Amino acid sequence: MLDKYQIIAIILVIILIMFIIVLTSKKRIIKTYEKYLRVNNKSNLTGKQLAFLSKQNLELYDLQFALTDVKLGDAYSPKYNTLILSEDVANTASLSSLAIVAHEIGHAVQHKNNSFLFVLSQFFNFITKFTNKLILPLLVVGLLFFILKYPTDNLGEILMIISGCLFALHVIRLLLNIPLEYEASRNALKYLKDYNYVSPSEYKKAKKLLSTAAQTYIASLFDDLLIFSKKRKIK
Q1: pTM flag (> 0.85)
Q2: What is the dihedral of CA 99, 104, 108, 110, to 10 degrees?
């Protein structure tokens, strides 16, 4: 049977491995993104042009557009029904631009169609926006009460259990992002193919780019579990 020091050592090793995965995954997506940012697409469409065409093609008439100077800061904001494009993606007629814009358009379509995954994800986003603020205070107060056995013997334990349950909601929200992102990527590839925006060889490269990005959704779970770290972009 493992003693507490062996358990701690195993946990530290797992954390280290996950940290390495996060770092390497981010490097892979940046490397692949920059590679295909230098590859022109056959349709000669910039990301901005594809976005406007997609608004008409997919009847996303309420969709708004915004620019950001953050590299790979492309996102879809459900709150404002706005597609946010980084300047490189918006202004270059590259394969990266098509794949990234199509992916974010995929989220806009999920929103328009009220897909089950999208609605469920938004529900958990709304709930955890408030519950995440309670996790640390409940944990600290619960631990203090547990140590002091004040004001009752089990109140501290109850507060820590509640804190753990709220953290579980946060984890569920993060896990829901994985199938949500995969669905958006799958729909993006289908859209590019159906509208003949990419050639067969470009389709394979776009699939590789989005597949590499999909790996980061899983790896970034570890990063996002640190809910008290710096604020991150919310899609």
Answers
A1: no
A2: 80
